[in-house]
Protein backbone atom coordinates (compact mmCIF):
# COMPACT_ATOMS: atom_id res chain seq x y z
CA UNK A 1 0.00 0.00 0.00
CA UNK A 2 1.06 3.56 -0.58
CA UNK A 3 3.40 4.62 2.21
CA UNK A 4 2.52 8.03 3.52
CA UNK A 5 -0.19 8.62 0.90
CA UNK A 6 -1.21 11.84 2.56
CA UNK A 7 2.29 13.28 2.04
CA UNK A 8 1.42 13.98 -1.59
CA UNK A 9 -0.86 16.75 -0.32
CA UNK A 10 1.93 18.69 1.38
CA UNK A 11 3.63 20.01 -1.81
CA UNK A 12 0.30 21.15 -3.26
CA UNK A 13 -0.62 23.20 -0.21
CA UNK A 14 2.95 24.45 0.22
CA UNK A 15 2.94 25.76 -3.33
CA UNK A 16 -0.46 27.33 -2.86
CA UNK A 17 0.80 29.16 0.25
CA UNK A 18 3.61 30.96 -1.64
CA UNK A 19 2.74 34.09 -3.62
CA UNK A 20 4.86 34.91 -6.69
CA UNK A 21 4.84 38.03 -8.83
CA UNK A 22 7.70 37.21 -11.19
CA UNK A 23 6.08 36.68 -14.59
CA UNK A 24 9.15 35.13 -16.30
CA UNK A 25 9.40 32.67 -13.41
CA UNK A 26 5.72 31.76 -13.74
CA UNK A 27 6.25 31.19 -17.47
CA UNK A 28 9.17 28.88 -16.69
CA UNK A 29 6.99 27.03 -14.14
CA UNK A 30 4.30 26.57 -16.80
CA UNK A 31 6.70 24.86 -19.20
CA UNK A 32 8.26 22.84 -16.38
CA UNK A 33 4.82 21.55 -15.39
CA UNK A 34 4.09 20.55 -18.98
CA UNK A 35 7.39 18.70 -19.26
CA UNK A 36 6.93 16.98 -15.89
CA UNK A 37 3.49 15.70 -16.86
CA UNK A 38 4.85 13.89 -19.90
CA UNK A 39 7.92 12.66 -17.99
CA UNK A 40 5.68 11.19 -15.26
CA UNK A 41 3.42 9.58 -17.84
CA UNK A 42 6.43 8.04 -19.58
CA UNK A 43 7.54 6.60 -16.22
CA UNK A 44 4.04 5.20 -15.74
CA UNK A 45 4.32 3.54 -19.14
CA UNK A 46 7.77 2.25 -18.25
CA UNK A 47 6.35 0.52 -15.18
CA UNK A 48 3.60 -1.01 -17.27
CA UNK A 49 6.04 -2.21 -19.92
CA UNK A 50 8.23 -3.92 -17.33
CA UNK A 51 5.29 -5.53 -15.54
CA UNK A 52 5.47 -9.31 -15.52
CA UNK A 53 2.75 -10.90 -17.64
CA UNK A 54 1.75 -7.61 -19.28
CA UNK A 55 0.30 -9.28 -22.36
CA UNK A 56 -1.91 -11.51 -20.23
CA UNK A 57 -3.25 -8.56 -18.21
CA UNK A 58 -4.11 -6.25 -21.11
CA UNK A 59 -7.50 -7.90 -21.64
CA UNK A 60 -8.46 -7.50 -17.99
CA UNK A 61 -7.26 -3.89 -18.00
CA UNK A 62 -9.39 -3.12 -21.06
CA UNK A 63 -12.49 -4.56 -19.35
CA UNK A 64 -11.77 -2.65 -16.13
CA UNK A 65 -11.21 0.64 -17.97
CA UNK A 66 -14.41 0.16 -19.98
CA UNK A 67 -16.41 -0.50 -16.82
CA UNK A 68 -14.96 2.54 -15.06
CA UNK A 69 -15.54 4.87 -18.00
CA UNK A 70 -19.14 3.74 -18.61
CA UNK A 71 -20.28 3.61 -14.97
CA UNK A 72 -18.64 6.94 -14.13
CA UNK A 73 -20.10 8.54 -17.25
CA UNK A 74 -23.62 7.40 -16.37
CA UNK A 75 -23.27 8.34 -12.69
CA UNK A 76 -21.75 11.75 -13.44
CA UNK A 77 -24.37 12.60 -16.05
CA UNK A 78 -27.15 11.60 -13.65
CA UNK A 79 -25.69 13.58 -10.74
CA UNK A 80 -25.00 16.65 -12.86
CA UNK A 81 -28.46 16.46 -14.47
CA UNK A 82 -30.05 16.45 -11.01
CA UNK A 83 -27.98 19.50 -10.06
CA UNK A 84 -28.96 21.21 -13.32
CA UNK A 85 -32.64 20.61 -12.57
CA UNK A 86 -32.18 21.99 -9.06
CA UNK A 87 -30.01 24.97 -10.01
CA UNK A 88 -30.53 25.65 -13.74
CA UNK A 89 -27.95 27.78 -15.50
CA UNK A 90 -28.72 29.62 -18.72
CA UNK A 91 -26.01 30.31 -21.28
CA UNK A 92 -25.91 31.90 -24.69
CA UNK A 93 -24.20 29.20 -26.74
CA UNK A 94 -22.12 30.56 -29.59
CA UNK A 95 -22.28 27.56 -31.87
CA UNK A 96 -19.84 25.19 -33.49
CA UNK A 97 -18.37 27.70 -35.93
CA UNK A 98 -16.87 29.76 -33.10
CA UNK A 99 -14.66 27.00 -31.70
CA UNK A 100 -11.13 27.96 -32.71
CA UNK A 101 -8.59 25.16 -32.62
CA UNK A 102 -11.10 22.47 -31.64
CA UNK A 103 -9.32 19.82 -33.71
CA UNK A 104 -5.99 20.87 -32.22
CA UNK A 105 -7.37 20.50 -28.70
CA UNK A 106 -8.81 17.09 -29.49
CA UNK A 107 -5.50 15.87 -30.90
CA UNK A 108 -3.70 17.31 -27.88
CA UNK A 109 -5.84 15.01 -25.75
CA UNK A 110 -4.07 12.08 -27.41
CA UNK A 111 -0.59 13.27 -26.37
CA UNK A 112 -0.75 11.68 -22.89
CA UNK A 113 -1.53 8.34 -24.52
CA UNK A 114 1.51 8.76 -26.75
CA UNK A 115 3.76 9.50 -23.74
CA UNK A 116 2.58 6.37 -21.94
CA UNK A 117 2.90 4.27 -25.12
CA UNK A 118 6.51 5.38 -25.54
CA UNK A 119 7.21 4.39 -21.94
CA UNK A 120 5.54 1.00 -22.41
CA UNK A 121 7.55 0.24 -25.54
CA UNK A 122 10.80 1.35 -23.91
CA UNK A 123 10.12 -0.74 -20.80
CA UNK A 124 9.04 -3.82 -22.74
CA UNK A 125 11.67 -3.88 -25.48
CA UNK A 126 14.63 -1.70 -24.49
CA UNK A 127 15.25 -0.77 -20.87
CA UNK A 128 16.08 -3.18 -18.05
CA UNK A 129 14.26 -3.01 -14.72
CA UNK A 130 15.07 0.29 -13.05
CA UNK A 131 14.63 -0.03 -9.27
CA UNK A 132 14.65 3.75 -8.80
CA UNK A 133 11.90 4.40 -11.38
CA UNK A 134 9.08 4.22 -8.82
CA UNK A 135 10.81 6.60 -6.41
CA UNK A 136 11.66 8.93 -9.29
CA UNK A 137 8.02 8.99 -10.35
CA UNK A 138 6.86 9.74 -6.79
CA UNK A 139 9.33 12.61 -6.32
CA UNK A 140 8.50 13.97 -9.77
CA UNK A 141 4.82 13.91 -8.86
CA UNK A 142 5.48 15.78 -5.62
CA UNK A 143 7.42 18.43 -7.54
CA UNK A 144 4.58 18.64 -10.06
CA UNK A 145 2.02 19.16 -7.28
CA UNK A 146 4.18 21.86 -5.71
CA UNK A 147 4.42 23.73 -9.02
CA UNK A 148 0.69 23.32 -9.66
CA UNK A 149 0.04 24.76 -6.20
CA UNK A 150 2.14 27.78 -7.21
CA UNK A 151 0.17 28.11 -10.43
CA UNK A 152 -3.19 27.94 -8.67
CA UNK A 153 -2.15 30.55 -6.10
CA UNK A 154 -0.72 32.93 -8.68
CA UNK A 155 -3.33 32.62 -11.41
CA UNK A 156 -5.03 35.81 -10.30
CA UNK A 157 -7.91 33.87 -8.80
CA UNK A 158 -9.50 34.64 -5.46
CA UNK A 159 -10.05 31.47 -3.44
CA UNK A 160 -12.91 33.16 -1.62
CA UNK A 161 -14.64 34.12 -4.88
CA UNK A 162 -14.11 30.65 -6.34
CA UNK A 163 -15.63 28.95 -3.31
CA UNK A 164 -18.50 31.44 -3.30
CA UNK A 165 -19.39 30.63 -6.91
CA UNK A 166 -22.46 28.55 -6.12
CA UNK A 167 -22.80 27.09 -9.58
CA UNK A 168 -19.15 26.05 -9.82
CA UNK A 169 -19.06 24.67 -6.29
CA UNK A 170 -22.33 22.80 -6.78
CA UNK A 171 -21.15 21.28 -10.06
CA UNK A 172 -17.90 20.14 -8.42
CA UNK A 173 -19.72 18.55 -5.48
CA UNK A 174 -22.25 16.84 -7.78
CA UNK A 175 -19.40 15.51 -9.90
CA UNK A 176 -17.40 14.29 -6.88
CA UNK A 177 -20.32 12.70 -5.04
CA UNK A 178 -21.63 10.88 -8.13
CA UNK A 179 -18.10 9.61 -8.88
CA UNK A 180 -17.72 8.25 -5.35
CA UNK A 181 -21.11 6.55 -5.57
CA UNK A 182 -20.00 4.93 -8.83
CA UNK A 183 -16.78 3.82 -7.11
CA UNK A 184 -18.74 2.06 -4.41
CA UNK A 185 -20.94 0.33 -6.98
CA UNK A 186 -17.87 -0.82 -8.93
CA UNK A 187 -15.88 -2.12 -5.94
CA UNK A 188 -17.26 -5.70 -5.93
CA UNK A 189 -17.09 -5.99 -9.70
CA UNK A 190 -13.48 -4.76 -9.82
CA UNK A 191 -12.61 -7.06 -6.91
CA UNK A 192 -11.14 -4.17 -4.95
CA UNK A 193 -11.58 -2.97 -1.39
CA UNK A 194 -14.13 -0.17 -1.20
CA UNK A 195 -11.51 2.47 -0.41
CA UNK A 196 -9.32 1.36 -3.34
CA UNK A 197 -12.26 1.61 -5.74
CA UNK A 198 -13.08 5.06 -4.36
CA UNK A 199 -9.49 6.13 -5.00
CA UNK A 200 -9.83 5.01 -8.63
CA UNK A 201 -13.01 7.06 -8.96
CA UNK A 202 -11.38 10.18 -7.48
CA UNK A 203 -9.11 11.09 -10.38
CA UNK A 204 -11.68 13.50 -11.88
CA UNK A 205 -9.68 13.66 -15.13
CA UNK A 206 -6.27 14.38 -13.55
CA UNK A 207 -4.50 11.48 -15.26
CA UNK A 208 -0.91 12.39 -14.38
CA UNK A 209 -1.85 12.31 -10.69
CA UNK A 210 -4.12 9.27 -10.62
CA UNK A 211 -1.89 7.05 -12.74
CA UNK A 212 1.17 7.43 -10.52
CA UNK A 213 -0.59 7.57 -7.14
CA UNK A 214 -2.81 4.56 -7.82
CA UNK A 215 0.04 2.69 -9.51
CA UNK A 216 2.29 3.29 -6.51
CA UNK A 217 -0.39 1.94 -4.18
CA UNK A 218 -2.02 -0.87 -6.15
CA UNK A 219 0.56 -1.78 -8.78
CA UNK A 220 1.30 -0.66 -12.36
CA UNK A 221 -1.72 -2.43 -13.86
CA UNK A 222 -4.17 -0.45 -11.74
CA UNK A 223 -2.10 2.68 -12.35
CA UNK A 224 -2.63 2.12 -16.07
CA UNK A 225 -6.35 1.63 -15.52
CA UNK A 226 -6.58 4.87 -13.53
CA UNK A 227 -4.63 6.77 -16.18
CA UNK A 228 -6.70 5.46 -19.10
CA UNK A 229 -9.96 6.14 -17.27
CA UNK A 230 -9.03 9.78 -16.70
CA UNK A 231 -7.51 10.48 -20.10
CA UNK A 232 -10.58 8.97 -21.80
CA UNK A 233 -12.74 11.26 -19.64
CA UNK A 234 -10.85 14.24 -21.06
CA UNK A 235 -11.30 13.06 -24.65
CA UNK A 236 -15.02 12.38 -24.15
CA UNK A 237 -15.42 15.80 -22.52
CA UNK A 238 -13.96 17.51 -25.59
CA UNK A 239 -16.52 15.71 -27.73
CA UNK A 240 -19.63 16.28 -25.60
CA UNK A 241 -19.11 19.83 -24.32
CA UNK A 242 -20.28 21.49 -27.57
CA UNK A 243 -23.26 19.14 -27.73
CA UNK A 244 -24.53 19.69 -24.18
CA UNK A 245 -23.47 23.12 -23.04
CA UNK A 246 -26.33 25.11 -24.59
CA UNK A 247 -29.08 23.23 -22.74
CA UNK A 248 -27.24 21.31 -20.00
CA UNK A 249 -24.25 23.49 -19.05
CA UNK A 250 -23.74 21.79 -15.68
CA UNK A 251 -23.36 18.42 -17.39
CA UNK A 252 -20.96 19.78 -20.01
CA UNK A 253 -18.76 21.65 -17.53
CA UNK A 254 -18.90 19.07 -14.77
CA UNK A 255 -17.97 15.99 -16.79
CA UNK A 256 -14.64 17.62 -17.70
CA UNK A 257 -13.73 17.37 -14.03
CA UNK A 258 -10.48 19.00 -13.00
CA UNK A 259 -9.72 19.87 -16.64
CA UNK A 260 -12.55 22.43 -16.72
CA UNK A 261 -10.14 25.08 -15.44
CA UNK A 262 -7.43 24.42 -18.03
CA UNK A 263 -7.50 21.90 -20.88
CA UNK A 264 -11.22 21.88 -21.70
CA UNK A 265 -11.75 25.55 -20.75
CA UNK A 266 -11.22 26.90 -24.31
CA UNK A 267 -13.96 24.63 -25.65
CA UNK A 268 -16.25 25.58 -22.74
CA UNK A 269 -15.58 29.27 -23.43
CA UNK A 270 -16.10 29.12 -27.20
CA UNK A 271 -19.15 26.83 -27.05
CA UNK A 272 -20.91 28.27 -24.02
CA UNK A 273 -19.77 31.88 -23.88
CA UNK A 274 -18.20 34.03 -21.18
CA UNK A 275 -20.92 33.16 -18.67
CA UNK A 276 -19.49 29.66 -18.35
CA UNK A 277 -15.88 30.66 -17.72
CA UNK A 278 -16.01 31.56 -13.98
CA UNK A 279 -18.23 28.55 -13.32
CA UNK A 280 -15.84 26.20 -15.11
CA UNK A 281 -12.78 27.66 -13.37
CA UNK A 282 -14.44 27.37 -9.95
CA UNK A 283 -15.55 23.77 -10.60
CA UNK A 284 -12.17 22.70 -11.98
CA UNK A 285 -10.32 24.44 -9.15
CA UNK A 286 -12.34 22.68 -6.44
CA UNK A 287 -11.95 19.28 -8.12
CA UNK A 288 -8.21 19.86 -8.58
CA UNK A 289 -7.91 20.19 -4.81
CA UNK A 290 -10.35 17.41 -3.97
CA UNK A 291 -8.69 14.81 -6.21
CA UNK A 292 -5.33 14.47 -4.40
CA UNK A 293 -7.02 14.87 -1.02
CA UNK A 294 -9.53 12.08 -1.65
CA UNK A 295 -7.00 9.75 -3.28
CA UNK A 296 -4.56 10.28 -0.45
CA UNK A 297 -7.20 9.66 2.21
CA UNK A 298 -8.69 6.56 0.58
CA UNK A 299 -5.35 4.94 -0.20
CA UNK A 300 -4.05 5.61 3.30
CA UNK A 301 -6.92 3.53 4.72
CA UNK A 302 -5.24 0.33 3.55
Spell the H/E element sequence.
HHHHHHHHHHHHHH
Q: List the total number of helices.
A: 14
Share of helical residues: over 70%
Percentage of residues in DSSP E strands: under 5%
Pick out the low-confidence regions.
93-98
Q: Provide the residue-averaged pLDDT.
A: 82
Termini Cα gap: 6 Å
DSSP strand count: 0
Please, how many domains?
A: 1
Largest sheet: none
Radius of gyration: 18 Å
Which class of secondary structure composition applies to the elements? mainly alpha
Gross morphology is globular
Question: What would you note in describing this structure?
Answer:
The chain is mainly alpha-helical. It has one domain. Helix content is 75%, strand content 0%. It has 14 helices and no strands. Helix 2 packs across helix 5. The termini are close together. About 2% of the residues have low confidence.
Features:
302 residues; mainly alpha; 14 helices; 0% strand; transmembrane helix; membrane; transmembrane; L-lysine efflux transmembrane transporter activity
Task: Write the topology of this structure.
Blueprint: H1 9-17, H2 23-49, H3 54-86, H4 102-108, H5 111-126, H6 133-153, H7 159-163, H8 166-190, H9 194-200, H10 207-218, H11 220-244, H12 249-255, H13 265-272, H14 276-300
Describe the structure concisely for a colleague.
One of its GO terms (cellular component) is plasma membrane. This protein is mainly α and 302 residues long.
Amino acid sequence: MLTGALLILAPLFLGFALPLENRPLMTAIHYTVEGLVYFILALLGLGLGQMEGLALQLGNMAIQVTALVIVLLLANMAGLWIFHRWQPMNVAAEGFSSRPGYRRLFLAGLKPLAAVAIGVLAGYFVLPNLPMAEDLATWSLMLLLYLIGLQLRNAGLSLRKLLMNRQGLGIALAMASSSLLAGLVLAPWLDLAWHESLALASGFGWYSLSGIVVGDALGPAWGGVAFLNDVIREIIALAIIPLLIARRPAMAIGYGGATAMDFTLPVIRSSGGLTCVPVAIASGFVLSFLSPVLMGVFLSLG
